[in-house]
Known about the structure:
The chain is of the alpha+beta class.
Amino acid sequence: MGKRTKKVGITGKYGTRYGSTLRKLVRKIEVSQHSTYRCAFCGKDSVKRSCAGIWNCKSCRKVMAGGAYSLSTASAVTVRSTIGRLRKIAQEQA
């Protein structure tokens, strides 16, 4: 099957409406929400979004909470590293 869109990709459904800048932003979000992610439990690329913030692994059937459009958000990564650093400091003091 031939490639149907050259530039617009998934946002071709919007046609010429809403402006190119908004369609580019929506394209980035929609591509990330429809892609598969690697499962932290089984290591396979089988995590898909079921609804906003809920992610299911099809192989190990785990359900995870994450971001609305991607499995891990930038703020979640920051919080995870901060918690790890504070735990390390607490273990050194004890």
